[in-house]
Design brief:
124 residues, mainly alpha, 46% helix
Amino acid sequence: MDLTNLHALPNDQKAASRSELTSHQLVFRLLHTRHQHLTDGLGVKAEVKRPKATIKAPKGIRAEGSRRTAEGKFTKIVFNKIGGRECPRFAAMTWAERDIALAKPENAAVRDRYEAHMASVGAK
């Protein structure tokens, strides 16, 4: 079809002639994002490398304390057994207070019970 004289063609043929793409236009046309597929140039779909979603763990003092409690499988009953008579409010302490209490030489018995419990649950 010779497209030099578009005035002589009916409107539907004019529209069709404009919508046809040349081979050069077909090579370089951009696909709509809905229809776009990634290929390696040979028509084979290339794998899309996406970063794996990582869950960011909270880094606050409370989060660290709850993680430490969960790793050691501690409950109030276990804390009370570890504290015993030497450290009766061991369960009510924060982890910072417990660490200070365990470091004192007079709480050696409490430290031994704490280490025995940690060994029994296999915590780090």
